[in-house]
Amino acid sequence: MKYKNVFWGVILVVLGILFILKNLSLIYFTWGDIWSLWPVLLILWGISILPLKSGLKLLLSLVAVVIAVLVIAERNGGWDNRIYWNRDHDEMYSERWEKQQWSDQQVAEPWNADIEKVRLVFEAAAGTFEINGTTDELFEFTHEGNLGPYEMKVSGLESERKIKLELTETNVQVGRVRNYAEMMLNTNPVWYIDIHAGAARIKLDLSPFKVEDLDIEGGASSLDVKLGDLSEDLTVNIDAGVSSLTLRIPESVGCEIETDSFLTSRNFKGFDKVESGRYQTGNFEDSNKRIFINIDTAISSIKIIRE
Questions:
Q1: Residue 191 clears pLDDT 50, i.e. is over it
Q2: What is residue 230's DSSP assignment?
Q3: What are the domain boundaries of the chain?
C-alpha cells in the first residue's frame, strides 16, 4: 500500500473520530481547537517525504493521529471532565469545580517620570497571553485561571527598571490548565520585552509603544504580534518549535527577515528574497526606521502583513 493513497484517508479518520467522541459527550471541542492542531498536517506531510517503508510511514501517521485526539481531549477537560470556558473570562463550569484552585490577580507598578527604559521579562508557561492597551501606571497585569498566581519582581535604578513576572510554586496544576493574562504598558519609556512560553497563544499589540527589542521563546505556540513605528531600530527574535506566527508591521518602515526554519510555510508578501533565508522590503535601505526580524522555528506557518 502506498502512503500517498492513505494520506487524506488518515485526515478523514482523525476528524471522524473527534466528532464521534464529541457526539458521545466524551470530549468537547470547537473548530478553533481543530484549527489549532494544523501542525499535524505538516507532520503527516513530513512523514510522507521521509525515505521510509510505507508500513512504517503509516504507523507514524497513526501515532500522530492518536496524539492529536489525546491533545484535543486534554485541552477540553479530559475524558471524564467537561469544562466550558467563556472567553470573556466571566464563568467557568466544571463537574470537578471543588477540586479546582482558581487564581484571580491584579498587580501594577506605579509610573515615575524619571523612568526611561524598562525590561519586561515574562515567564508565561501555558495559556493565553495578551498585551492590549495603555495605562497611566508603568505596568499593569491581570491574571486569572487555575495556574498561578504570578509573582512580580521590580528592580533597577531611577531611570531604568526591570519587571519580572513568573509563576509561584504554590499552585501548579497537573493536567487541565486554564491560564489567561493581560498586560498594559505605559507609552513613555523605551521597552525591551522577553517572553518565555510553553504551549501558548500570544497576542501582542505593541504599536502604541517604543519597543527596541522583542524576544519570544515558545514551544507549541500561536503568535500574533503587531509592531509600530515609534523606534528607529526594532529587533525581533522568535525561537519556537511548532507554531503559527503572524507579524503585522507598518508599511512605511523598512524590514528585513532572516529565517532558519524546517518544514515552514512562508507568506512574505511585499518582501524580496536577497539570499537563502533572507528577505527585505523594497524600502529597507532608504528607510530611517527599520525592523530586523530573526525567526528560528521547526514546523511552522509564518505570515508577515504590511499595514
A1: yes
A2: S
A3: 3-82, 100-306
